[in-house]
Amino acid sequence: MSTDSDTQSESDAREQLIDLAAEFYDQFADGEVPTMSIPTRTKSNIEYDEDMDVWVYGDRKSTRSAKTVSGAQKLLKATYVIEFLAQQLEEDRSSTLRELYYLSESFDHEEAQFNSQDESNQLIEDLEIVSDVRREEFHMRPEESGATVMGPLLIREQTRRGEREIHCQEDVGEGGYQIPNNPDTIEFLDNDADFALCVETGGMRDRLVENGFDEEHNCIVVHLKGQPARATRRLTKRLHDELGLPVTVFTDGDPWSYRIYGSVAYGSIKSAHLSEYLATPDAQFIGIQPADIVEYDLPTDPLSDSDVNALESELEDPRFQTDYWEEQIELQLDIEKKAEQQSLAARGLDFVTDTYLPERLDAMGVI
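The line above is the sequence of Type 2 DNA topoisomerase 6 subunit A; the predicted structure tokens follow.
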């Protein structure tokens, strides 16, 4: 059931798309070669926005121009997708990113068809940037991420079958409440939470729930399910901004997991145009820290060459240029080890909920 604000948002999104296509036609009419400029999406074009406390794209631009065959094909594909999205919004329907890739097979010009899903995904991101409209407002959604929430939170969710109220502990099973593609359809009604704990792995999420960590500490456990989907990051930001909850991030102790934290806190290169909407700059990293590997003598694996390269890259990454991260990363390079969240089980199945997390949260001033 759409609300008036939803309808207006959809109308605005459709208008923005049509205006974008009209720019191409205006360029033709003025005798100009059609072009589309977007920010260069590389680490070197990421800069810190002190007002928003997140990383955003800088001034470097890439131009798609019909002067070249490759550029002309990209603009052709963009116009076909714009037409599809405008029709989808007019009919109040939705589709997945995967469906869009296959739908292009029906485009009547072979040159407009996509060669891979990465190509169609990137085009949707391009259209988000140049139109200043999020893909959720295009009614485009990814495949289900399966990320969930468990904790003392009462919500009202808008669905096509109407509204429903759900308590994210009392009305769900052990799996928790599954985060919808567009978390802005959720209204927060009530909560007894003191903080949110974002957890990388399903195994650790299950351990926390089985041990009753969410109940004992009035905690909302958010399962990131690896690199978190946009919907997960958006909901996490809303928990912080609208409910005033501290956000903490608990991952494995390796460079790839530190980037998971970075995407929650500061945004990612791929979605830097949405950092203000998705990132939670106040999010704090709990661990596993390299210091924890040493202090608790955790079971470890040796760093691979790719791990070492990633850690060295992070020392140059603007998201990790703080005294804390430089100290931790340099320590990890020194000990040449990494550890998983589940390595805490070497000290017993209750160690993580009875000792590790309470001590870390207390030291961080969260509890």
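Note on the example: Residues 101 and 120 are 6 Å apart (CA to CA). The chain has a mean pLDDT of 84.
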